[in-house]
Write a structure and sequence with these properties.
The protein is α+β, with helices and mostly antiparallel strands. It is built from nine helices and eleven strands. It folds into two domains: about 90 residues, Helix Hairpins, CATH 1.10.287; about 180 residues, Cathepsin B, Chain A (Alpha-Beta Complex), CATH 3.90.70.10. Belongs to the peptidase C1 family.
Amino acid sequence: MASTSLRRRRLCVWALALLVLDAMASGGEARALSPTEEKSMMDLHEQWMVQHGRTYRDESERRRRLTIFESNVKYVESFNREGGRKYELEVNAFADLTEEEFQAGYLGFRPATRSTTTTTSGNRWPFTYGNLSYESLPSAVDWREAGAVTAVKNQGHCGACWAFSATAAVEGAWKIARGELVSLSEQELIDCDTGNGNEGCVGGYPTHAFEFIADHGGIAGEAAYPYSGNPTGACRVGGASSSSAPRPAATITSYAAVPSEDERSLLKAVSRQPVSVAIDSHTLRFYAGGVFTGPCGTNLNHAVTIVGYGTTPDGTNYWLAKNSWGSAWGEAGYVRLQRDVPDKKGLCGLTVDASYPIP
């Protein structure tokens, strides 16, 4: 289950949610809220709005969001009451969204045919870690401990997970190869990496981002080309003059794909550097902590970066993934996904489409 530290950091409004739901549950089957229970849910929603800085355009919208919020609160509490899983859920910043709204605004992976994803300069490499001995790999790896992972970022209401997954992988590769950790610009990718299937906040493909970085001489740093969460309509590199265009803060020469549906090969790659992967994430939006074990499918719709792996004290093997939904989500912005599952595609399809940059 989730750690004690995780429980301590839960939303301050959660105790009120429990009181509301206890009252509702005492009546047996689902029923309409009494005036007192409705007032309590309204209070809970108001506290949640303050917690997350949420406002609505009018009373009609507020009432609609309250209904959605109530449904999500019931779902989270029902899930946690059932128990028996290695992870828990919580009422987080996504609690007033429908599933359709969440998927439309906070994901952004757009799969492409792997056989057609070659760089314009033809510099995609074959898998470079195939000769590593699986038996000799470290039992646990955490690239944060090696200083190869920047702080968790937040893509906001922009389907640019592809850019965040790619930059996190390049940040790690650059640190490992050059000894310098620098936060890189997702906004450059949103503004400039277009015309190849990547469409900014509408979605994209991490390997196309690697191609862009390799073919255009690198990528700017976050400080020089900061994130706005929206396409600016103008790329600040390439056509700009050398005096005004941000200079590359990191470069790569190529990228490689991890053999699909091969968890051992993915382990080899992650033992050497962070790796971009695609997952089916729709059941992850309320994840609070612990080792996520599903259920989930393999409809790849979100990209994250695997930055390590390990085993819990109870013997559950897991992948450690950096997400881009802010540090308030999950385990300070990270999720642990069960490793060594029977399905060759991995949990949530994470072995299907994995790749990494080569400095």
